[in-house]
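User: Predict the structure for this protein chain, please.
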Amino acid sequence: MKVLGIGAICLTLAVAAAHASDPPYVIENLGTLPNKGLSGAKGINSNGYVCGFSANSPSDFASFIWDMNTLVDLGSLGGTFTAAQGIGINAAGEIVGISKNAGGENLAFRWSNGSMRSLYTPTTALGKYSKGFDINNAGVMVGVIQTTYFDIHAAMWTDPGTLIDLDGRIGYNSSANAINNSGTIVGSMKFVDGDSTIDHAFLYDGVTITDLDGRSGYGSVASDINDSDQVVGNAQFFIGAGVQTRAALWDGGVLYDLGVMPGGTQSQAIAINNFGDVVGGGSKTGYAFRPFVIRDGVITDLHDLLPVGSGWTVLYEASDINDAGQIVGRGIHSGVERAFLLSPDCNSNGISDMEDMLGGTSYDCNGDYVPDECQPPACIKGDANEDGEVDALDIAPFVQAVLNGGYTCESDCISDCTLDADDAAEFVTILLSAP
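Assistant: Here is the predicted structure, written as structure tokens:
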């Protein structure tokens, strides 16, 4: 297994130029469900919808979805307890997690269209426990099931009634932690490598389970995978005179050490988006644990991104990050534990970029989740033939683009991501003012 240090990460975390540095951020307190005292966020989808938990105590939990306006209680499987551990959410707002049923058993659930269904019905021969961790846009879910009273196995559900045990071995534990939109699954599994007590990160491509680590005597866990098959988690590395557990990235068969924060001795990566941005946490000088984001190989403590006067004193964890760079987790706001949503605000207007784009006050014509006004001009407006200047030679290709409905940056003269009469009027203005 080839292992590279943090200096090589930028070759792998190939993010767009617009994502090269941290923009200003805004942070939102997502509140709590009625009659609950605290909350935490676990997952966020591409539309900015958040799932998580609201609770009063370890025996009084409820799961929620935040639809960018309000928290909605997901209900339960018949019991009084719905835990939010390991919850995942897809683009359609479908959620997986864990809930007690009327018999008091902790079972994996799928919530969709306002209804919660159990993913696993325990039997006498099997155990009485299951948990859902993630769900992709096709509705395929992953998590764990108890196969005997001693074994917990990685599991996949293609729908609420179809369960596949990905492990199948007796005497071993495993976990399926994440699935991408191609159906590739990652997690951890105890491999027979001379020490059956050590977990190794694995990848399942629908046919074969592959040990991502392959290093004897060193443990690892895969926590998440993006649509480019980049995998993050943590792994043990020999650093200096001893072994440290650090945030890790697997890409193309290469294991990368993502490093630690200044003065830190341990770290872990929890989630990765499709631009290669990573969230996790670890120790640093003066702190046992601080959540962080990694962009272009640079680790940044989330506390350094908080707006002045935000009211947030401590951020406990970063649980997920979407392609818009929005980060969710939990922390302390005004002395109370609350779910947070930390969002880029590149134009510093006090409103998240996601809200600007959804509300139509900003445009994202190139689809990179960054408002166009925050980026260098992507093209010369009116230069329909893309020869570097605006002149009479652009008239024919501009008319063709408008008539054919084919979008080009150059022909979108008013930068609203569409081609219409307003662009034609602006094109004439640009053409007449050209030297």
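The CA atoms of residues 122 and 128 lie 5 Å apart.
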